[in-house]
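pasting for ref
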Amino acid sequence: MAVPDPKDPRPAYEQIADDLRVAIRDGRLRPGDRLPTERDHAARYGVAIGTYRQALSILREERLLVTLKRHGTAVLKPPEDTPSPEYTALNQRLDQIEAEVQRLAKRLDQAKTEPKLSPAGVAERLDQAEAKISGLAAQLAERSRHYDDALQSLAEIRDKLQTLATDTRRLRHADGPPDQSPAAPDPPGWR
């Protein structure tokens, strides 16, 4: 598909920004790679330099690119997604529950093979172990529901923030050329 696509209702600069963003995420553009000159790249996309600069401005705001005078525009290392503290705490709790289930399963296996226990004692210990496993399974299911709810809330917040960012960019575009992003420090190896 050609970018910008005239059938796409989004402005050309947003389509170009998406195309470059995908190239960065797919690894076709890697951290440290320099982009062609603005004039050359705008010509490749078949757009005016101002349109191309708007696309670069979006990616600079997202910290995917940096533009330095006399050095051009280069790809930065994409920010890494880090798990939230809630996600980390939930994973730790799930690890604890899993360890407890394994410990109980081991005890259950031992109880099945211990000759000292009477059949009634074995049955009682099996019932206790099954009750404890059922309780842990219920806790796990409850925590899983909370985790799913939290993920849904985070996805909704992310979508709202993306919509806000898009609306902000459109307003800036409607008011005139976008501000240049503040100068960023030289990437390693550019000096």
